[in-house]
Amino acid sequence: MQIPLNIRLRNGATFSNFIADPSFEALNYLQTIIRVAEPQSVYLWGADSTGKSHLLQGACHAVSKMGGMTAYIPLAQTDEISPEMLVGMENMALVCIDDIDKVVGINDWEIALFHLYNRIRENDAQLFVTANVSPGAISINMPDLRSRLSWGMVFQLSQPSDEIKVKILQQRARERGMDMPEGVACFLLRNIPRDMHALLAVLDLLDYESQVAQHRLTIPFVKKYLGIQGKAN
Asked: Lower CB density within 10 Å: C or N end of the chain?
């Protein structure tokens, strides 16, 4: 189970729904240490839209399915989360902290994170964190906290290829009850910004418009509602 933070995990954000190269090291490593319940800390870093949040939520789903308590803490939502909320989280089987770089440099947060690392290690629990930069490049004031970030495994995540982006779009469409032909997904990649945030925002729009119009996703339909001019290909 997950402790109540008024933060819901996305149902589709599971390991089985994470689309990546089969040899993707971070995914394989997280699955392994969760399966054997190995006490460990993991630091995932990379640019936006590289799957960091999906992996953290997938980890929470996996541990919860095994009966363990988890906490998913998206620090980009600092208006809802305070450093005091970290107290006692060492009793969770897994704590996942998303976007840790959003709060480094803030004294109260750095102290709270430093002590959380220590308590989790003492309790043989698991702690997974994400950031946009490597542990060595993150702007931390506390040297001891910086060292904690590198205690466990560190993985850099890369932007997905266009082929993977097409598969992600099709999967997210299926989660919404839509069928997105490969040609439509490829058309979107050719005609709108290719970062996943932009692509998924367009998918949200198409989901709404297709339900209103009761129309399947076709290239002419997509062109019409996105205002894309020119030949439908």
From this structure: C
For 76-88, write each residue's pLDDT tens digit: 876 778 899 999 9
Supply 136's token pair. 């060595």
Could you give the CA distance from residue 176 to residue 221 in angstroms, rounded to a whole number?
17
Q: pLDDT tens-digit profile of 169-204?
A: 999 898 888 899 999 999 999 988 878 888 888 888
Strand order in the sheet with 70-74: 70-74, 94-98, 126-131, 40-45, 153-156
Domain ranges (residues) in the chain:
25-156, 162-226
Residue ranges with strand state E in the chain: 40-45, 70-74, 94-98, 126-131, 153-156
Per CATH, domain 162-226 is 3.30.70.580 = no
What pLDDT shows up at residue 230? 47
Residue 95 contacts residue 116 (beta carbons within 8 Å): yes
Q: Please, are residues 168 and 56 in contact by the beta-carbon 8 Å criterion?
A: no
pTM: predicted TM-score of the whole model, two decimal places = 0.83
CA 145/CA 151 separation, integer angstroms: 10
| Other Cβ atoms closer than 10 A to 189 | 15
pLDDT at position 210: 86
State how far the alpha carbon of 227 is from the alpha carbons of 147, 193, 215, in Å.
50, 14, 17
Residue whose token pair is 């995540």? 157
The CATH code of the domain at 25-156 is 3.40.50.300
